[in-house]
Design a protein that fits this description.
The chain is built from seven helices and five strands; from the N terminus they run E-H-H-H-H-H-E-E-H-E-E-H. It is mainly alpha-helical. It has a single domain, classed as Jann2411-like domain (Jann2411-like fold), CATH 1.10.3300. Bound molecules: zinc ion. Zinc ion binds next to loops.
């Protein structure tokens, strides 16, 4: 897979979404229930791994390997120190046989890219994409952007690539709302008690 080095939000965003497909902390359970669900996830995120060009039909081995990668990525987000993030991300880049090279962008200008080996398994390609994102975020935005979800009922994690850096939830639409609903109910109950 070809990844522009400057686009750390792409890899970090995919990593966050991939980690949070796991049943950990999700009330809705496992999101990657089958190879087909994994394929849908990849299409939704607009990634084009070499592995899928070679064999578009995903297998249960692909699914198992991506589920395992999810755990590795989660551990990297939760790593207590920056050096562990760099070491772990470098290991993921190495595993996929990643090399830096120049490729032309749509305007014909040379841009730095990371390319995984053509023979790398799907999970290794995704791992390299996520790792490149993690390293870019660490260098540009800092380690404080690797966070736990602020919802007290969620164990999700995320990497905040927003400009302001004020993201609080792993799945803002879900975890933020869930908390708002809980607060609203609590206020309502307190109000009823007072009445
Ligand atoms: Zn959450």
């Amino acid at each position: 897979m070809k990844t522009p080095m400057s686009d750390y939000a792409l890899g970090a965003g995919l990593a966050t979404d991939l980690i949070n497909t796991a049943p950990t902390g999700r009330s809705s359970g496992e999101a990657l229930t089958s190879p087909t669900a994994l394929g849908r996830f990849l299409v939704e995120h607009g990634v084009e791994p070499y592995a899928m060009l070679a064999a578009p039909r995903l297998t249960t081995d692909d699914l198992d390997e991506v589920r395992f990668l999810r755990k590795e990525l989660r551990a990297l987000v939760l790593a207590g120190d920056e050096t562990s993030v760099v070491t772990g991300a470098t290991e993921l880049l190495t595993r996929a046989g990643t090399v830096p090279t120049l490729l032309r962008d749509s305007a014909g200008r040379w841009q730095w890219h990371l390319c995984t080996a053509r023979v790398a398994p799907l999970a290794d390609e995704l791992g390299a994409l996520a790792a490149a994102g993690f390293l870019g975020v660490l260098r540009t935005l800092g380690h404080a952007r690797f966070r736990n979800c602020a919802s007290p009922v969620c164990d999700g994690v995320f990497v905040d690539t927003s400009k302001a850096g004020r993201r609080r939830y792993c799945m803002p639409a879900l975890c933020g709302n869930r908390l708002n609903v809980a607060n609203h109910r609590a206020r309502k109950v307190t109000g009823e008690e007072r009445a």
